[in-house]
Amino acid sequence: MASLDPVLDKDGVRLTVDEAIATVTLTNPAKRNAQSPALWRALTEAGRALPGSVRVVVLRAEGQSFSAGLDRQMFTPEGIEGEPSFIDLARSGDTELDATIAGYQEAFTWWRQSDIVSVAAVQGHAIGAGFQLALACDLRVVADDVQFAMRETSLGLVPDLTGTHPLVGLVGYARALEICVTGRFVGAEEAVATGLANISVSRDQLDEAVGDLASALLAAPRDAVIETKALLRGAQERTYEAQRAAERAAQARRLRDLAGVGE
């Protein structure tokens, strides 16, 4: 397949679009795709740059590791040039600190919007922020060498890049607590068994497996996928009766649309 001209290529993030499939690639393998505020801004920009034709977004990473987590320079007193250090953040007021973290979180929020299905292709280490970025996606396909870990608590911090909600939803409160507090590694077999990953394949089959999944996701009509995703996303927050009502309303919309009948 011919290479595509990138829509965006900056700060360790590259976005390419091939008709209905967009690919976001982490492109700093020399640093194991360590994350920084600049990378988060680039991820946010990638989400905003998606054409309306895109239905599936694949998140992948170059090199041996998906992402080893935060750039360790952020933990030094001087921090990363041009960015607030952790010490600077700690000294800021509550409103400023909250706004800064909310800005960082934007890089992790758009992957679950209803009009796309996002798939993370994860190999090697996905630690801390890397784990949370994989969790930001709807689906995860992992290589058999994957090593998930949530190390923030071990560093005296908490996971704050939107990962706690999907983690609890996937594996339950007790296991999520144990994973976060111990900071232990979760391998491919456990990830599939507990719902963290949809499928595990050998490293050399990862791209092919993700491509097959993307093709399968495109097989259903787009509006039906959007309605189904919205139904499932809201199911945990609704009562059984409220979910029944949501199903009826969604189906009514689909039937009217298919029949060409206005509401």
Question: What can you see in these coordinates?
Answer:
- This protein is an alpha/beta fold and 263 residues long.
- 41% of the residues lie in helices and 16% in strands.
- It is built from ten helices and nine strands.
- It has helices spanning 37-48, 86-91, 94-105, 129-136, 164-171, 173-182, 188-194, 206-217, 222-235, 240-259, and strands at residues 8-10, 13-18, 21-26, 56-61, 117-122, 125-127, 139-143, 147-149, 199-201.
- The strands form two sheets. It has a seven-stranded mixed sheet, sandwiched between helices. The protein has a two-stranded parallel ribbon with strand order 6-8.
- α5 crosses α6.
- The longest helix has 20 residues, at 240-259.
Which structural traits does this protein have?
two-stranded parallel sheet; 10 helices; 263 residues; single chain; 41% helix; alpha/beta; globular
Write the element-wise H/E pattern from the N-terminal end onward.
EEEHEHHEEHEEHHHEHHH
Give the overall form: globular
Low-pLDDT regions: none
Largest sheet, in brief, is: 7 strands, mixed
Helix/sheet category: alpha/beta
